[in-house]
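Hi,

Apologies if this is the wrong queue. I'm a grad student, and the batch job for Sulfite exporter TauE/SafE family protein from Dorea phocaeensis produced an output file that my downstream script rejects. I'm not sure whether the problem is my script or the file. Here is the sequence I used:
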Amino acid sequence: MSASTILLIFMWIFAIAFIIILFKDVKAHKQELDKAKLGFNSIISLIANFFDTLGIGSYAIATSAWKFNKSISDDLIPGTLNVAFAIPICVEATITMTRISVDPLTLVLMIGSAILGSILGAKIISRMDIMKIRVIMGIALLIVAAVTLCKINSIGPFGMVGTARGLSGAMLVIGVIGNFILGILMTAGIGLYAPCMALILLLGMSTDVAFPIMMGSCAFLCPACGITFIKEGKYQRGATIPMLIAGSIGVLIAGFIVTSLPLTLLTYLVCIVMVICAALFFHDAKKQKK
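Support response: The file is valid. Your script probably expects a header line. Output copied below for reference.
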């Protein structure tokens, strides 16, 4: 049995445990569920996870949509991202990890370090006040926009073409530490995909190797940090389960029905929206401070 298969088995055991915890929490608070704009949030989840499967990322798309429409409170956005998108990302990981080969040790250690980082990050973010979260979300969107622009224009590490399917020695240590940091940042709304791909390319690995590593990392770390957000009650309970279902449908459509789209123009548009949304977060934080 391959390392990828073993990881997938553990991933889905963990995912089932996560779903049980989520359902118990939602049921325990069923009298206070906020179902406002439920349809909008579900559609956004489907769209965001659809494009996530194609490599654009889901966090920035969903964050921008929720911010513009005010459908989810700013302080609940980080938790909702990690809780509602946990299972769709597990579906993504199942698709990519069964299709692309990668060195088992590299895969296991980089995924493990991302999990540890996310658990630490979730504890920090879930206890922050709304003003700090708004500032962090604004910074996160600007970082993601910059990295995404570098990605689609092959700037910096994205212009490099590696061939390695794994790491060893000092390079493996750097990769593990780097993914640990990205695991922390993901809980604050900085999507792991583009930064993880940049890290992998900088270390000389093949571009396709990024997909099982980054999607596998997210598939483990989202439920891991999501449990923390659930226990703290820092997520949108009323919309999470419908978004989880809609997001999984979006992944399946992208993974098995749509194999490719002309995404460059759309990605530029998403970057513009991210910058505007970041400005809104900063504006609201400044207004609250006054």
